[in-house]
Amino acid sequence: xxxxxxxxxxxxxxxxxxPNGKFGSDRPALFSPAIAAQEPANSSQIFYNFSPxxxxxxxxxxxxxxRAHTTTCYIGDWTPIGKLLIEGxxxxxxxxxxxxxxxxxxxxxxxxxxxxxxQEGHVASEGILYRVSEDRFLxxxxxxxxxxxxxxxxxxxxRSVDISAxxxxxxxxxxxxxxxxxxxxxxxxxxxxxxxxxxxxxEGVEIRLLRTGISGELGYELHGPAEHAARTWQRVVxxxxxxxxxxxxxxxxxxxxxxxxxxxxxxxxxxxxxxTPGAQRLFPKGPLTGSFIPARGVADFFRYPGExxxxxxxxxDSHEFQGRAALRAQAAQGGPERRLMGLExxxxxxxxxxxxxxxxxxxxxxxxxxxxxxxxxxxxSKGKDVGISSSxxxxxxxxxxxxxxxxxxxxxxxxxxxxxxGAPGTSQREVRAEVHxxxxxxxxxxxDVATDxxxxxxxxxx
Length: 462
Description:
Oligomer: single chain
Helix content: 10-25%
């Protein structure tokens, strides 16, 4: 059982006694720096507080927006996530200590998935690490405040600078993303391999282009100065018009994550950093919903890397890192007891819930395409709790209701389980679900975009 130190206990008490009953901190919201370019297409005029920034909730309709990454491509605004520069002679040594992976060799321009754990081995922070230069790195993702705090607890010849407020971050994802970016930037990008980045120029402004795959499809990421966010967004939308680009709102922003099997900080689990002094940027905001009720408090929302599909990234023998002893002890006993799987929810059971609004006694409606916020549900097998489902969503690409699930290893793919739908104290419903390996659709992140002699682009999934 996970126990909490006095410092952690104080952090947990402050979290759960929030008078608003929410996960997350209340602060004045700001509009995205790209709002001037986003506003003309934001027909709903509804915004979501992707703390601390307001982003459009939906531009046209969620069906075409949530399918764009598989049919054409989208541009989405991820500016609210943390962005931290780590620089100095010991920057690489610190990041090696902070992360579970062996990160050397780490050439300039390389992108790595960086998972950091606390002393007990639970994920404390997770995101993308990019080597800008010899002694300079950019870390983006959930828990960058924790990373900065951790750096300050040691005697490292390095410093961190939070550049979140002054930097935009856009995702351009989908099969047509290469064509859009080549037109927008006016250059050939066929040599930029997956998990690589480089500086580029857009209308005289230097920005950074990374080839990433957060949608499970061919995709790119743009970082640049906030004062140029609106013009950059506008230029990409204009360049993408002939290629069917869609602007992606918050309602559909994470649908692709579920299809691809990517667990999201603050939605599918809570980072263990929330109970440390390093927890400043707590998101998303909103109440916890669903049928799952923690028995041990906040520790029931923590996850080990192996529970989230990141066990292969843990390198126990290559370097010293925080939490290594805990993960070594776990490995000696066979690893974590649970693993991340996908669930396909039974169509008939979901349909009954969707039409249950006509039933006066039913009080737990199902939002489409997904619940925007933290929603976790009990998963049963033969009447026994075997897992926790999260991020239930309707996939317009798959035409199915799906979710992620941290599930006991004894439960195998293709088996049937039961999801309990509805908050405790309400008229709950049982939903049959089939267990699936992840991803739920083919992984095309590593598509080979090299041009052959006939000018064709090959598409080779990883």
